Amino acid sequence: MPDITDINKTYGEHRVLEHFSLHIEEGRTTCIMGRSGCGKTTLLRILMGLEQADEDFGGSREMAAMKKSAVFQEDRLCENLSVMANIRLTCPDRTKAQIQEEMREVDLEGCAGQPVHELSGGMKRRVALLRALLAPGDILFLDEPFKGLDEETRQKVIAYTARKCQGRTVLFVTHDEREAGLMKAAAVISMEALC
Ligand SMILES: Nc1ncnc2c1ncn2[C@@H]1O[C@H](COP(=O)(O)OP(=O)(O)OP(=O)(O)O)[C@@H](O)[C@H]1O
What is the ipTM of this complex? Predict the structure, then answer.
């Protein structure tokens, strides 16, 4: 895993990241915490290649070459496709039976054929999470993945996610310190707001 060094990012006059560096633990979960607006999502978007930093940064080429999967703060599902079709988009090599098995783990059994637009917000969240967790990849980005789940479901889904993340390289953004513990994060990085 490359060390990420010296990321700068400004939006107009607003400086969000200044000489930001990050060590990502290979095969482990690295948790990123910080106040709302301090730049966590911006950092993830830059590392995913969805946003450009102000200039080239250390590790950018290696990062660009990696296969990535992600859960964004928004679900970003194909609303008219079924749950199964959405998940299979990222893991076509898995059988439907295998995917059904994973769906059961997060209480989504019975809705494989349902179009996503018919699901509740919490169900959509779990579909987005499964889609990312089942996708093969070198690095997994999780941006507040458990947002909007009721407490009982959240506990179950966090435990499942922690199991699926074992041995994988994961960057995980949360506002909740307990989630970092439950996800067995190897490191917790506190981002400071620049203004
Ligand atoms: N496309 C954009 N154009 C202008 N400003 C932006 C843009 N994207 C983000 N920002 C600003 O950059 C700052 C960091 O935003 P970012 O979404 O990275 O914060 P965050 O730490 O992820 O916040 P939260 O915890 O609320 O999700 C904010 O002040 C935000 O308004």
Answer: 0.96
Q: Give the distance (Å) from ligand 1 centre to CA of residue 75.
A: 18
Q: Which two tokens stand for residue 175?
A: 């506002």
Domain assignment present for residue 95? The answer is yes
* Pocket of ligand 1 contains residue 39 by CB under 6 Å: yes
Number of domains in the chain: 1
Q: How many CB atoms lie within 10 A of CB 101?
A: 12
DSSP sequence for 138-187: SEEEEESTTTT--HHHHHHHHHHHHHHHTTS-EEEE-S-HHHHHHTT-SE
Is the beta carbon of 24 within 6 A of some atom in ligand 1? no
Q: What is the tens place of the pLDDT at every residue in 73-117?
A: 888 999 999 999 999 999 999 999 999 999 999 999 999 999 999
Residue 55 lies in a domain: no
Q: Please give the distance, rounded to the nearest whole angstrom, from the Cα atom of residue 144 to the centre of ligand 1.
A: 14
Q: How far is the CA of 16 from the centre of ligand 1 (A)?
A: 8
Give me ligand 1 centre to Cα 187, in Å: 23
Whether 127 maps to a domain, the answer reads yes
Does residue 110 fall inside a structural domain? yes
